[in-house]
Structure formats: C-alpha cells, structure tokens
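Troubleshooting: if your tokenizer reports a length mismatch, compare your output against this known-good record of 248 residues.
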Amino acid sequence: MNATFRLWRGDAGRGQFIDYATEVSEGMVVLDAVHRIQADQAPDLACRWNCKAGKCGSCSAEINGRPKLMCMTRLNTLDLSEPVTVEPMRAFPLLKDLVTDVSWNFRVKPGIKKFAPRRPDAADGTWRMAQRDVDRVQEFRKCIECYLCQDVCHVIRDHDKHAEGFIGPRFFVYAAALEMHPLDTGDRLKDLKNAQGLGYCNITKCCTTVCPEHIHITDNAIIPLKERVVDRFYDPVTRLLRVLRGGD
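Known-good structure output:
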C-alpha cells in the first residue's frame, strides 16, 4: 500500500511541508519510510540517524505533532489514511530539513559537578552499598540523550529559559543520578537552585510522557531534587542551623 508523508523541508531561513507518497509494508517504522523517500524521491533530504534500534537517540523528530524517535514509531500505530507529518524538533535551532542543532546540550553537561566518590570503606579498597540505593539510580542510566524531553519542555520550548541557564529535564536526570548515587559526595543543590533553574520546572510530566526509555523523570528525579532543595534552603530549622554554622 501507499502512504503519504508530509515532511518539513528547509533551513533556518525558510521552509515548507512537502508531501511524498511512498510504498509502505508490514513492519516498517517512520525512519524506513523517510529512507525510502530519500532513495527514490529526495536524495538531498537531511535526516539524522545512527543505530535504528532506539538506543542512540539520533533520529528524534516530531511525528504528527508529538516528539518521538522515528526508528521506534511503527507505521501500524499511525493513521495512514491521512498524511503523516514529520518535522524537526522545535526547541532547537533548525539546520536543515529534519536535522536540528542540539549542541547546546553538550555545552550544558560539563557545567554539572562531576561524580566525587567517597573513600573506600573496606580494607581491600572497595565500597559497601545497599542494593536499594543502587537500584534507585539505575533507572537514570537508561537515558539515550535523544533530547525529546528537552524538546517538549515548555520552559525551553516556549520560554527560552535555557538562555538563562535552565538545564532541562535531561540534565536534571543526570544531576539526580549523581546526587542520589550511594558513593557520591558532591553537592549540586546550590547550583540546581540558583544557576540551573530547577525552580522553573512546574512538574507537568510532559518530559516523562515522551521518554522512549520510560524513565520516570518527574517523579523519580525532578521532584526528589526539588525536595532536597526545599529541605536545604527553605526549611526554617535547617536554615537556622546553617546560619549558626556560618553556611551560605
């Protein structure tokens, strides 16, 4: 059977949607259809991809208005009686066609304090950890940095707060993986509160909804970080103790 794909074509200066009719078959995903269009009709179509297995995060796009991975969006989940709209992520600068410039994310990451392990607590130079503490951070390691959570975050997408230092849900997950690590001794709460904009997040859970790895970004990362910030900086007893001890 044939299906129509409405693809965004253009660059940062101008562009438009163009319809391409192409043959589809059982088992195909959106990325398969885009590749077929490239091969048969539009060899100059720009599209970023790598693994085609939902593990590299390269083929992020907006499909029928929803941020998704093209390689993980099966055609049998879409209404092919209507054109399937495929466009680049809207939260990042457009380079060409379906490709956006996500380099801002790579500049953000080095600004988060790195893992700082405590000293070994055993004579053989190893550590002892509770399994529940290990399990807590394992979820965060599933992130493939597709940046779909960043794309859908309204603080970045609609309000441009990333220009003011807001790091977004992907890096709140990264910070949580460090803050909650049973070996880590680093302290990132002041940075999260002041420089990295944790307070801007109003926990709509839109980031959790689009995560292809099903990480509970809001409930397991952002809310616990917010709780730690509140305990540190806004709890009256804690604040009094910090003043008495000469803390900031």
